[in-house]
Amino acid sequence: MEQYRTRSPQYGPRQSGPRQGGPRRDRPGPPPRQPVPSQAGRGAGGEPVRAARPPGPRRRPAPARRPAPAPAPTAGRLPNPRLTGLGSGLFCAVVMFLLGALCSALFGASLTAYGVLFLPVCALTALWVRRGDLMTAPIVVPIAFAVGLVPVADGEDGSGATLMGLVTALATQAGWLYGGTLIAGLIVIVRRIRLVHRRRAAGARPPV
Fold first, then answer.
1. What residues contact residue 208 under an 8 Å CB cut-off, 6+ apart?
2. Are 93 and 152 in contact (CB under 8 A)?
3. Distance from CA of residue 93 to its chain's centroid?
4. Which residues share a beta bridge with 83?
5. Which among 60, 109, 144, 147 has most CB atoms closer than 10 A?
């Protein structure tokens, strides 16, 4: 018995015409050429040549910024204000006047207690003055000492007695005056030296 084989079409329907004698119509044609821009030239092989860019300064990449360090926690820290030259003078004078009035009311115008309280006020004034006005601290401290002596050396016979009491207190309590001025001067010198060292260290660092 004869067996008929059935073949499934693999390449689509066959053409009815003869295969030989002509080009195949199912082949894709050549790809279309892309339009050449008007500004582009052509090379030796007929291919389009792109116009070269004019030389110019290249942009440098921006330096990477380092993140700023996180601020340290301020809990439990002592106050550290920054006073100007005038502000430090007003601070020292007002505080010494209040301390002089306090000594006159509590200790019977004790000049020794007033002199002891004068020393920490001088230290605070020299510590809290800003860097640009460091040299004003040793100048305003003696003025504040004289201002604070007004309520302590208050006389009962008028302004003449008050002035004489003020001069006498300045003469007898000169040790406290010199001691407070010396403390303020030493603190200012130390702060100035540290400031100069920081500036030199910052200038010696290589650029990033």
1. 63
2. no
3. 32
4. 129
5. 144
170's tokens:
């300045």
Dist. CA 154–CA 168, nearest whole Å: 11
- Structure-block tokens of residue 167: 């001069």
Structure tokens at 166: 């003020």
Bridge partners of 41, per DSSP, are 49
Q: What is the DSSP string of 103-154?
A: HHHHSSS-HHHHHHHHHHHHHHHHHHB-GGGGGGHHHHHHHHHHHHHHHHT-
Max intra-chain CA distance, the chain: 158
The residue among 63, 70, 67, 69 whose CA lies nearest residue 208 is 63
CA-based nearest residue to 150, from 98, 87, 115: 98
Using alpha carbons only, give the angle 151, 178, 107 rounded to the nearest 5 degrees.
35
DSSP secondary structure, 51-62, as one string: PPPPP-PPPPPP
pLDDT recorded at residue 96:
94
Token pair for 201: 């260290």
